[in-house]
Description:
By secondary structure, this protein is of the alpha+beta class. Helices cover 25% and strands 12% of the residues. The protein contains five helices and four strands, in the order H-H-E-H-H-E-E-H-E. The chain has helices at residues 2-11, 52-59, 78-87, 91-94, 123-127; strands at 71-73, 100-105, 108-113, 133-135. The strands form two sheets. The chain has a two-stranded antiparallel sheet. A two-stranded antiparallel sheet has the order 2-3. A hairpin with a 2-residue loop joins strand 2 and strand 3. It is globular, with a radius of gyration of 19 Å.
Amino acid sequence: GGAFNWLEQRLFGANSPFKLIDKEPDYRQLRMASRCEPIHYPKPDGKLSFDKLSSVYLANTSHDEDQPCHLKLQDELIPVKVNLPTWGEPAQRYCPAGVFEVLETEGAAKLQINAANCIHCKTCDIKDPSQNIVWTPPQGGSGPNYPNM
């Protein structure tokens, strides 16, 4: 990528004769869960690797307690009836902030949205294979605030 960028900017002045174009949207690129082996990640050590919630804390994103949820599902059944059996409900893995998790309650699976953890990256809006998650700007328009950068 760096070499391509250098060529694009230095030699071709943004008029490169070749372009890197993805013909398929990102959400259509997911492999079915049946074709993949689960990845077992080691537990975070707190020195080089960290758990998701520690990283969410560092993003310093704030939400008002009483604000409406800015993450909506068009159909509440799709995550469990379509995404879970087909792709293993990828929202619980592609979200960098752990906003989405599948919970087992009374023998039935349900997708829980922890919107207070959201860092407003819009990955769910782009990557959801069923295009069922609707991301809207949260009330107040706040986003990550990295004070030490």
